[in-house]
Amino acid sequence: MIGIIYEARPNVTADAAALCLKAGNAVILRGGKEAIHSNTAVAEVMRNAVEDAGLPADCIQLVQDTTRASSIEMMGLTDYLDVLIPRGGAGLIRSVVENSHVPVIQTGVGNCHVFVDASADIDMAVNIIFNAKTSRPSVCNAMEKLLVHRDIAEKALPAIKARLDEKKVELRGCKRTCEILGDAVLPAQEEDWSCEYLDYILAVKVVDSFEDALVHIARYSSGHSDAIITNDYTNARAFTERVDSAAVYVNASTRFTDGGEFGCGAEIGISTQKLHARGPMGVRELTSTKFIITGDGQIR
Question: What is the residue range of 66's domain?
Answer without folding.
Answer: 2-104
